[in-house]
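Record 1 of the preview.
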Amino acid sequence: MRILCLTHADFETPGIIQDWAKSHFYDFKIVRPYRGEDCLAEKNFDMLIVMGGPQSSVNIEDYTYLIDEVALIQKSYFGNKIILGFCLGAQLIGVALGAEAVHSPFKEIGVMPVTLTKEGKKDPLLQNMPAQFDVTHWHNDMPGLTENAVILAESEGCPRQIIRYDQNVYAFQCHLEITYRGMKDMIKNCAADLTNDRYVQDAKTLLDQDYENINNIMIKILDQLVALQDDKFKTISV
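->
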């Protein structure tokens, strides 16, 4: 399988997702549009993963390269690619499919649980997941909803944590890919985000969390995604 991954900051990496891909000997290519790399030039991939970043999808017009990413997501969608988005990437999927990203009711930074909705408990991607499990949060915004979007998980601070936009298009406002090392990098580069808010944890609390367990959940979801999409891995050029 060929995976194309878009990132938005040097300090915010695919984390455990890249380790998972390497363990399965999948081709994993990172493109960095914020550095001027042309994501629209990429055609030969089966799965598109769009990561988080410090940019705001609410003000997408401020970032020309995000507009290019939205165009790539649209082409990938109509090309029947598998699409996953995390945080900013989740919001960009919504924008690409016709929804407007909005501010989350609360800013969330830290390790806190999400709860599966009734639809989430039935979704094939989340089979065998507990009704509630810890994830990592670092966001101010959340994805918009299309007519066909289904909310699969929610949290106290944000009602749109996991969204299914189509059978092969999933958006995670939360993070499951950030490793302990990745969290250290986030704290170092985004310390100003750690404000005194209801759903914001301090640096010490963040570093005391069990990221390995969260990463294992990410791996289970990725393995399940591959199992579900196994007959769709023939690349269709966009």
